[in-house]
Amino acid sequence: MEHRKRPQRDIIITRDNRELIMEGPVPPDALARCTMHPKLDAFRRPAEQHEALVEIAGLTEGRILIAREGKQIVGYVTFHYPDELERWSEGGMLDLIELGAIEVANDYRSYGIAKRLIALAFAEEQLENMIVYTTEYYWHWDLEGTGLNVWDYRQMMEKLMKSAGMIWYATDDPEISSHPANCLMVRIGKEVPLASIEQFDRVRFRNRYMY
Questions:
Q1: Mean per-residue pLDDT for 155-164?
Q2: What is the C-alpha separation between 206 and 173, in angstroms, rounded?
């Protein structure tokens, strides 16, 4: 399987003349030389998350895109194969990639960083041979930090994913189905063969009568 990793870079100059660099996929050695913003703690402690990012970047299929100020990471997006314990790995698909964690430090959330990082990830047709999916669960959302309710946050996430061509897909996955705000969003690259699309459909629906 070809995993295209074509380095991208973008720069934001803030109103107070600070430079934010967005880049990726970033190799593990470059990630290791960076530090994590102390508020990047949505999933685990910043130091532990930093180790996880370096590990993912070293995977054949893994890719990490970051926003940084100097050497400090202030936001990131991860792409990797599905976890072996999740249903999305059951099809054994080499062309199915999860858009996993998205996190931006609170003080940097007004710059459109997440949208820019996702756009960089799909630039130069890097993922046209892949089915990219993301599972959105309301219990992972920073409702308190944003001041949004569940439905406004869902709308925000849908808008973000749609900016990269990802759309809502139905599934009978019990976790996603457990709350109406949860959702599965998917982008099927134009080079993905029909056999892979059909296999993904079988993974989405275990109860075939819903398919």
A1: 94
A2: 8
Q: What is the largest CA-CA distance in the chain?
A: 57
CA angle (76 as vertex; 116, 186 as ends), nearest 5: 65
Q: Is the confidence at residue 208, as pLDDT, over 70?
A: no
DSSP string, 117-128: HHHHHHGGGTTT
Q: Cα torsion at 46, 51, 57, 63 (round to 10°)?
A: -20
pLDDT in tens, 81-140: 999 989 999 999 999 999 999 999 999 998 999 999 999 999 999 999 999 999 999 998
Provide the β-strand partners of residue 133. 98, 186
In percent, how much of the chain has pLDDT > 90? 90
**DSSP one-letter code for 71:** T
- If residue 145 lies in a helix (H) or strand (E), which one and from where to where? helix 143-146
Q: Are 56 and 83 a contacting pair, CB within 8 Å?
A: no
Instruction: Answer whether 191's CB lies under 8 Å from 128's CB.
Output: yes
Residues with Cβ < 8 Å from 5, sequence gap 6 or more? 25, 63, 126
Q: DSSP 3-state assignment of 133?
A: strand
Residue 188's identity, in one-letter code, is I
Q: Please give the structure tokens belonging to residue 182.
A: 């949860």
